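A.,

Following up on our hallway conversation. Structure tokens first:
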């Protein structure tokens, strides 16, 4: 699987703020004033799709698979797509505040420091379900790292579908996320329209 390893600020300048990609902020003072260019409808849809890809750290093939899964489920395809992406294990750990970004959460998972319902899970795309209990390995250096991240979380509020016990470093998934709690500002219908042409 290939994932983006290039400069993150370049992506943020092009697409806007992506809380899952990096904690860095762009400096608006040094930014030169350019004439806003008129984007075509295709470019607008592509931009929305790229926001999803870079924020959640999925490649094109994975995103197409999530679109197909979202189409099979009853309800709004765009909202179901966001729910599928938000319920990934790497994103859940990021939203609990155990990691500063989604790539950092993916690294903690890949190194085998996360347990779901008492079983070690080393796959970042693992789909969390309501009732899952997420814990950190007891005897690991990541426990100290998680403590440090919990002291200064990337996002100020934990969504209502998650519950965190800071003493035991345990997170619980209580339900499925609502659209209002998604931290990313985008129009998910444009992403669905982008893929409806394929």
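Then the amino acids I'd put at each of the 198 positions:
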């Amino acid at each position: 699987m290939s994932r983006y390893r290039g400069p993150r600020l370049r992506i943020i300048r092009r697409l806007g703020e992506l809380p899952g990609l990096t904690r860095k902020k762009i400096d608006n003072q040094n930014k030169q004033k350019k004439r806003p260019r008129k984007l075509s409808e295709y470019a607008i849809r592509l931009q929305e799709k790229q926001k999803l890809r870079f924020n959640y750290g999925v490649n094109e093939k994975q995103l197409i698979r999530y679109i197909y899964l979202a189409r099979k489920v009853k309800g709004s395809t765009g909202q179901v797509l966001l729910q599928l992406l938000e319920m990934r294990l790497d994103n859940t750990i990021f939203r609990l505040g155990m990691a500063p970004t989604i790539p950092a959460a993916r690294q903690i998972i890949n190194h085998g420091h996360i347990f779901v319902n008492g079983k070690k899970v080393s796959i970042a795309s693992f789909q969390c379900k309501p009732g899952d209990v997420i814990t950190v390995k007891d005897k690991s250096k990541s426990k100290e790292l998680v403590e440090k991240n919990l002291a200064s979380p990337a996002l100020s509020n934990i969504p209502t579908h998650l519950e965190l016990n800071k003493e035991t470093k345990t997170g619980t998934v209580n339900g499925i996320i609502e659209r209002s709690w998604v931290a990313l500002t985008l129009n998910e219908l444009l992403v669905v329209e982008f893929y409806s042409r394929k």
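Helices lie at 8-15, 41-56, 60-72, 77-86, 89-96, 102-110, 141-151, 188-196. Curious whether your intuition agrees with the design.

B.
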